[in-house]
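BACKBONE STRUCTURE TOKENS:
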Amino acid sequence: MQILKRVGGWLWERLGLQRPWDFAGRHPVQPEQATRKGWMYVFGAATMTAFLLQVVTGVALATKYVPSPASAYESLIFINQEVWLGWFVRGMHYFGASAMVVFISVHVARVFLTGSYKYPREMNWIFGVMLLVLTMLMAATGQLLRWDQNGIWTVVVGSQLLGHVPLIGPRLTEFVLAGDAVGGATLSRFFAFHILILPALIFLTVGVHLYLVLHHGVSEPPEAGKPVDPETYKEWYDERAERGGYRYWPDAAWREVVTALAIIVGVMLLAYIFGPKGPDAPPDPTMIAADPRPDWYFRWYYALLAVKPQGWEPFFMVYLPLGALIAMFLLPFVAPKGERHPKRRPWAILIVVVVVTALGVLTELGMRAPWAMEFETVPLSPEVVGVAEGPVWTGAQLFHERGCQFCHVAAGQGGQYGPDLTDVTRRLPPEMIVTRTINGIGQMPAYRDMITRDEMDAILAFLRSLEAPR
């Protein structure tokens, strides 16, 4: 024990750790950080903990993952099934990513609500928003690395969305795909961004953000009637912190240590209970019967694009997210001083309530995805159809085989992408049903070359039978 103490003391002196420790660990903090109110400040440390978990588990996975189209999928199966605790590490990596997205989002919301982006912490906010963007990019690039059917088609759809960006859309698409289509170059590019470029940028952003936090101090809890005045704030803040006599370690830091331990244990429990995410079906770019869905933290955007009004694609795909991002960057320069308390800034409460509600509703809708094609639907049984032979039975089988049942409900079974066809023969004449089927309508493809007249008659017979008493 004495040897370890002597070695530690030698390293402490030779590496000159006393000065950085005094700067980081012994700097004064506001009195509220040493009380129960201190728990409102732990989300930054929670984000850092989740990121470090991602680094540790990501490095471990990178030693076994093979970033090539021929081997990526099999390497994940190998990690799940053959590598000791490989499934557990992959599970931690997935739930760690979810934790990082949640905590950075809560942290940004807390800073916004308490007006902590105001003087002198404008640049703290800027680097925090940059960290939010980098976190979402990390989450997005990670999905393709599973190299399954869902992953590659999600990237295909995402690249098509980028194509709507004015002027540079095609260039952005080509940059993301590293070519004209998803392939080995795409996987290599996403792998490089996911394990090298984006983590390096996050480390840099976090480093600057932490330095600014130490330099300016953590913002005190807002108090109604005490606006931020750049002329007097710094002197008042420093005097208040010194008068309180509290230091970051241990008065405030112990809450962050407890939070970090809780996050690590929570992520481990989730990984143990639920296991890793994917991979799902092997990738097949030629299979168009795919229903790509992003991970849960992007489901709100997936739902937004699905329910948007026709013709509003550029607004929802480009201008809305870009406008929101620009507004976040401009916020501390538009309102650098004044009241910080939410009671004196009701518009801030309204914005947070609207955004959180919208994200929650859209995420729930995106998880259900009632508009998506139902590729797992099974053919109608003889009990449901009512017969086991003849034109009606043949039509019921064709209704499934030709893909009608993927998008349309009939007799309570099928997808909800298109209208329910249970009573279609009561709403439309047979001639119109045939015309719409043969020529297509809206997003429905034309079946002119995929169905014969006899098959169309059989499907009509089946649809008419749905109106008969059962």
